[in-house]
Design brief:
The chain has 2 domains: 15-203, MFS general substrate transporter like domains (Growth Hormone, Chain: A, Up-down Bundle); 220-416, Growth Hormone, Chain: A (Up-down Bundle), CATH 1.20.1250.20. Helices cover 79% and strands 0% of the residues. The protein has 16 helices and no strands. The radius of gyration is 21 Å and the shape is globular. It is found in: Cell membrane. It is a multi-pass membrane protein.
């Protein structure tokens, strides 16, 4: 164990919860995750009430998503050049600014200028493009390698809970206090998150020393950018993982388009849709709790693709179901598999990627995994129109399971088990 790292011991399943640095990071991350979930509900409700325009809603999501995707590579370079802890805090402060600005835009009578709304959407997308690479870089440095899986289990469970509970909290705030109070409370969560992350200072200085200013000028921004891309290209295990994830993850996300149509076909309405979606989240939370207690000590590509294959088979089986409860049961299984593959793949990435490249390489990963989603969702809509949602689940489930199963036979991935983590860059 590196003496400069956290004194967290892998021998205890509760060791991470005794580590002050991790607890502060986790609290900050959780507050930011719940703040994001509440923000998206508030933003969507504000657009509905103030504009009543589906076009504004769609283009706002598009603006935020495109900004995040286009600038993610730049955010990765920034995360590797500067202190990721401070970048995360700066991102949270920027989110708080967006919350307050949205509130101010709604004051008075009338609709806020569309240009102002889109500008705030661009700012939020820009913040995300920096926050996530910085988060990956920061998380890698505060725990030891043997605790990566447990840390990722806890983080994944936190994200699952934020997706389930965050919108509910946002709705309660809106109904009880109105839009303004809700936005101010949401801004407060981001501010507290930022200060919580900065409170890691003493432990952070013993774990990692960011590059000095003179170090960051040794190479150009373009050189740093291509260094991350070249690392992916020259690391067969990582390259094949990303290629197969592009197809498997795209298929998995594309299937989400079909669930409302399944609910409509069964005649169960929004409530039934909620049950089916909720089952996936509940499965994810249970999986995260289990994996945070009994952590995966040796993450491998084989384990990732086994989980992906199981999820794909569960989703494909939805095409054969005849009621919401059967679908909910399969969604529950899919949620467990989703958490398992997320935890194992994230831990594997932390082992494969050197600390000084984490921001750049993780941004490439994010672009590829997110880049396939709009393509798959567009194709999913076409399949639904021409053949129905059951055909969508059968086709995309087979694509997810098939591409994942193929990964078990790629030599670079199959033989990875024979490598040791000590031989990997750290």
């Amino acid at each position: 164990m590196d003496a400069q790292k956290s004194n967290t011991s892998g021998s205890s399943r509760w060791a991470l919860f005794q580590d002050r640095a991790f607890l502060l990071y986790w609290i900050g991350f959780a507050l930011s995750a719940f703040g994001d979930a509440i923000f998206f509900l508030d933003l969507q409700w504000m657009i509905v009430k103030l504009t009543g325009s589906g076009l504004v809603m769609g283009t706002m999501m598009l603006v935020m998503g495109l900004t995040r995707s286009v600038l993610m590579l730049v955010g990765g370079v920034v995360a590797d050049r500067f202190d990721p802890r401070k970048l995360m805090a700066l991102s949270d402060w920027s989110r708080a600014f967006v919350m307050i600005a949205l509130y101010l835009l709604t004051l008075g009578v009338g609709t806020p200028p569309m240009a102002a709304l889109y500008t705030l959407g661009v700012i939020f997308g820009l913040v995300d493009a920096v926050y996530w690479p910085a988060r990956n870089a920061f998380a890698q440095r505060i725990v030891d390698k043997e605790n990566y899986s447990q840390m990722n289990s806890i983080s994944t469970g936190t994200m699952q809970l934020s997706v389930i509970i965050g919108p509910v909290l946002g709705a309660i705030l809106l109904s009880a206090f109105g839009f303004g109070v809700g936005m101010w409370i949401n801004a407060l969560t981001f501010i507290v998150s930022a200060f919580t992350l900065l409170a890691v200072r003493k432990h952070w200085n013993t774990v990692y020393t960011p590059k000095k200013p003179q170090d960051t000028t040794r190479t150009s921004f373009k050189t740093d950018l291509f260094e991350g891309l070249n690392f992916v290209r020259n690391t067969p295990v990582l390259m094949w993982l990303l290629i197969l994830w592009f197809f498997a993850n795209g298929a998995a996300n594309g299937m989400s388009v079909g669930l409302p149509f399944i609910a409509d076909e069964f005649g169960v309405g929004a409530q039934g849709l909620g049950y089916m979606r909720g089952a996936f989240g509940v499965g994810g939370v249970i999986g995260a709790v289990v994996l945070s207690i009994w952590a995966v000590k040796t993450p491998t590509p084989r384990k990732v693709f086994i989980a992906f294959t199981l999820q794909g088979l569960a989703m494909a089986s939805i095409s054969l179901m005849h009621n919401q409860w059967e679908v909910a049961a399969l969604m529950f299984i899919g949620g467990i598999a989703s958490t398992a593959l997320s935890v194992i793949s994230s831990s594997l990435m932390l082992l494969l990627i050197p600390q000084d490249l984490m921001g750049r390489v993780s941004s490439v990963n994010s672009i590829l995994t997110m880049g396939s989603t709009p393509i798959a969702q567009g194709a999913a809509g076409t399949i639904i129109d021409f053949a129905g949602p059951h055909v969508l689940y059968a086709a995309f489930g087979i694509v997810e399971a098939g591409s994942s199963f193929a990964g078990l036979f790629v030599p670079a991935l199959r033989k990875y088990r024979h490598n040791t983590t000590e031989s990997l860059p750290a």
